[in-house]
Amino acid sequence: MKKIYFDKLLKNKCFFEILKKWSLIKVFGLDSTQYLQSHITIDILNLNNKKHMLCANCNSHGKVQSVLQLFNYKNGYAYIQRKSICKIQMNALKKYSVFSNVTIEEDNNYFLLGIFGKYVRTILSLYFCNLPHSKESIIFDKNIIILWFGGSNERFLLILKKKKLEEIKLFLLKKNILNLKNAWSYLHIKSGIPILEYEVFNKFFPQEINLDLLEGINFKKGCYCGQEMISKIHFRNLIHKRLYCLIGTTNFKINIFSFIEIYDGYFWKKVGNIIYSLHIKDNLFLIQCVLYKKKLNGNSFRITTDINSKFSMFKYNY
């Protein structure tokens, strides 16, 4: 794993970030469990009040509409996803709800606050009596929902209302904990979690963005939207593409779904598409991309629209 800007900062200090590009969606109603069960890639019956789970909802052809961080919430459920995809994803999910007692809506009364870095647990323990951990990855404390994310960098996601947000921000600032922009997305990428924006709606199968490697698909559950194609890919070993992360430089704006090319020693060949890019500093970027596995016969990549760009593989933690 290459050490870059964020790694050096997080190794020595704790930071926070208000996650304005992420949203909280609520699902409730008498039929909410059955309805979600028929649309998501995990078995919702395995979900309990002590954990949150990564999954996706797909169209009837098995293509991913959004990646969700799902958990129990009051008398229903809630999930976190990228804000850019909310409207189109919720409309798609509501499509079959006409005869079901279920409500799906974005909750703009809550804010998302990520806290991460060195001594993050010690610092938060000064404010909270309890914190989530590997065996209990979500807890409710002082009207705040706290989600735990593991990996090489332990981190916490707080879901809270504005008054509490300001209160905790003040607490953190008094402890000399500062805001670090884009760090949450970096840690998501470093953990191999796909970040899906509006432009990649209905573009990839869940295995192509590595959800099977992240325990985001249950191949034993009953029927759900897109299951036939997703199961066929799994049991017949038809996974031709995978999610990878590249690191490198470009002097141009990176557009989602742009082509990535690989140099095979003789020619540049198209090998896949960009699904997300993160600016690190100057002209340095991390990009998540879905690439054809069989075409990866080198480690020299470029973006098709910038022949002077230079990228190489950035390893994931799994």
Automatic annotation (TrEMBL):
User: What InterPro entries would the database entry show?
Assistant: GcvT/YgfZ_C, YgfZ/GCV_T_CS, YgfZ/GcvT
Q: Name one GO biological process term.
A: iron-sulfur cluster assembly
Among PANTHER family, the record links this protein to: TRANSFERASE CAF17, MITOCHONDRIAL-RELATED
Q: Which domain of life is it from?
A: Bacteria
Source organism of this protein record: Buchnera aphidicola (Therioaphis trifolii)
Please report the name of this protein according to its UniProt entry.
Answer: tRNA-modifying protein YgfZ
Point out the gene that encodes the protein: ygfZ
